[in-house]
Amino acid sequence: MKKKSTFPSGFFNLRELLALLICTTATYLLPLGTSLAFFRSEALAQPPQRTLTFEERLSYQRAIEGVYWRHRIWPKENSNPKPSLDVVMSQAQLEKKVKDYRRNSQVLEDYWQRPITAEQLQAEIDRMARNSKQPEVLQELFEALGNDPFVIAECLARPALAERLITNWYAYDQRIHGELKQRAEAELQAHPSIEQTKQLGGKYTEIEFVKSDDARNESNHNAEHSVKLDSRGWNETVQKLAATFTKPGSNQLNAQPCSHGAVSPCSTAQNASAQRGGYSNSPQIKNADLQAYQTIPVGKLSSLQEDERCYHATAVLSKEGDRLKLATVSWLKESLESWMTKTQSQVSVAMPAPGGNYTLPKISEGGCIEDTWTATNGAPSARAGQATVWTGTEMIIWGGSSGDTTGGRYNPSTDTWTPTSTTNAPEARGGPTGGMDRL
Questions:
Q1: Which residues contact 192 (CB under 8 A, 6 or more apart)?
Q2: What is the pLDDT of residues 240-290, one digit of tens each?
Q3: Which of 18, 113, 301, 374 stands the most exposed, by the fewest C-beta atoms within 10 Å?
């Protein structure tokens, strides 16, 4: 007699249970395996993110400086042979250059939430290749970096781009400068007359502009600061000064201590001094200049103005034919260098670089065309009477009509401006010479 199973009919027997377990496991593992294979293929399709260590960046920075030093002019008055790069640039200076651009990049991301992207770096390389005024030097720089688009993006394009972006973002950030603006506005409200400008907390300066196409024979007219302008410079100053009193908040005044006149990076880099000319003498322009001159009020303090370095207010003390005497009171903003010293953004030893398949563009063969003017980005504030020096690789300008302590270094090979450091800068002065203290 056959025995009945002791298991109830509602339960599986052992063989059925094992079969069900195997089928269920296979059902779930097959799609899981497919998914893992998909992600693995995706990971293999994307190249690993490339990085450069600090030591690698330092090595490439030295290669860049080596190119610049080879092209640096050695004065014939110095009978000693031109020294090697190691003599004129210490290891600490090289390290500072690398640390500075890495920190700039990090601060852009941490403070302004603007990390530099691969697209921006590629655009910067393209801009350099397209606008270079010394294409032969730029070609040497590319070669010194192994013609490696990634290295060029990180060690040549990134420093220039980070410097320009952080300067622009910092200059008008009200989170940083808003308190100073409020203080300046309160002082102007409490002391609104021109007679009270010396009582304000800002820096008081006077400057006289003299129209003279033969500046060599013109006297200083006993002004504290006297700047001689040709016809074009005079007319531009008149137009901008008139706009200051008709357009509140204008920041284009030619006479302010933070902005004085204009420079041409192209012609000056070749000739070490800018020559202005080609100004139209049409009756329409002359009439507009005359009307602007007549609208300039005497003895009236302007509203608070702003530029990248300061807040300021200006008054015309006198206007006599071809002479304009101005008084300006300015409240200097905290310098970017000082503010950066306070920031504590930490940069890793091997800073990750944004992923991107960079390409190396063809460098334009145009170069610099003498006696021409070309607009550039990142130039220092406009000024007159500045010192100008051509080193063979850079044009350096410093100082200006009201004794400015700022300046800029123009690199024609990459078509970039870099502000001169204000740390241990020489005493402010107007009309400095090329023999000024070492920059």
A1: 301
A2: 889 888 865 444 433 344 543 333 334 333 333 333 333 344 555 567 778
A3: 113
